[in-house]
Amino acid sequence: MIDYYKPEKIDGQLTAIRSRSGEIMYLIEGTERAFLIDTCLGIRGLKKLIKTLTEKPLSVILTHGHVDHAMGAPEFDTVYMNHKDKEVCRQHSPLQERRGYIAASIGGEEPWLLDDDNFVPPMPPDYHELKDGAVFELGGISLEVFELAGHTKGTMVVLIPEKRILITGDACNTATFLFDENSLPVEAYRENLLRLQQKLEGRFDRVFMMHHQMEASKDLLKNVTEVCSDIMEGNADDEAFPFMGNTYYIAKKADKQFIRADKREGNIIYNKQKIFKEGLGK
Fold first, then answer.
1. Contact between residue 152 and residue 66 where contact means Cβ atoms under 8 Å apart
2. 279 domain-assigned
3. Which of 100, 151, 155, 249 is deepest in the core (most CB within 10 A)?
């Protein structure tokens, strides 16, 4: 088995699980049941690790259908995902897609990558529909799930109200990717950010992300909303951002770890053809 995952206890009910390629998953355990948020790239060993961390009945919430978040789902019996991301999940499932992503993330291809037995088969499980406003009771702790479309059409965030923690995943982070065919225009994303902030006003004090850096400030959503406004008003720095043979733009100047030059938090990498809902010429 590949030693790809490492648990990191946050408290008695919450564990972060880090992958070698930089993804972060979250295990939340109540008195009656447990939930895993995201499943990484489908490298075997995740389910076995989870069994060492909890004996409670386990369900999975996928924040969205991308290769680095959803591919381990077939290992688990009960999986929830927004059905708007079914197609993107299907597109990202092939082993070749996963191998390429992993090699790029860990700094090169390694022999174990060539062995199919190290991967969960690329067959999507029978997902349960995950809808905006869904509530899951775990026993002494609960999860509330909200849609924040932008990164993909079906991207979700998870609130743990008892802990006042919001898990934003890729929906909003220090470098929100907003440029491919599955993402929304900046204007539509900004509207969704504002709508979510109204719903969650005063309900969280901490924000957890899912790549490399675990925690952000509670102002992350507000900060990224302001970045959207700067892009729309022509006030972005617009540094070129080459990615997989294309060139996109990072709104605020930042280093390779996405730490902004102005020391503020939150950024967007976007396609200049996808700024306004009706096209660039608005």
1. yes
2. no
3. 155
